[in-house]
Amino acid sequence: MGGEKKEPLHKSFGYAWEGITAVIKKERNMKIHCCVMILVILAGAIFRIAAWKWCICFCLFGLVMSLEIVNTAVEAVVDLVTEERKPLAKLAKDAAAGAVLLAAIMAVIAGLILFLPEGLEFLCMVLK
User: Which pLDDT score, from 0 to 100, does residue 13 have?
Assistant: First the structure.
């Protein structure tokens, strides 16, 4: 193990990128996350949100989408190991999916808090 030569760093980045693109192509929920991310970016640009709000948004994008990738990996490994319905396999899949759902719910709540002032200001401007 100590004597094995590692592949060049650029290949590691290539494999990681392949993983990201494979999940975007394969997983419906990741496509939804990407669409929501684009909508939030558009809303942020229209409302001209502050830099600190952008930072929070991008951290939340990264968290939710990373968890979706991990969820996909857990599901793939469980499916690779067993085709039978086993309680531990179900727990692993459900827990990984639950992590994504929890992060997504918290991201929505944070997004509402971040965008509510700009949204209300925009609404007041439109209604005048």
Answer: 93
The pTM of the full predicted model, rounded to 2 decimals, is 0.88
* Regions of the chain short of the pLDDT cut 70: 1-3
Look up 68 and say whether it is catalytic: yes
The length of the chain, given as a count of residues: 128
CA distance 47 to 28: 29
pLDDT at 2: 62
Distances (CA, A) of 53 to 21, 44, 49, 82, 115: 27, 9, 6, 43, 9
Split into its structural domains, the chain has a count of 1
pLDDT of residue 5: 80
Q: What CATH number is associated with residue 32?
A: 1.10.287.3610
Q: In angstroms, rounded to a whole number, what is the distance separating the alpha carbons of residues 92 and 65?
A: 18
Inside any domain, residue 64? yes
Q: Which of 68, 75, 83, 84 is catalytic?
A: 68
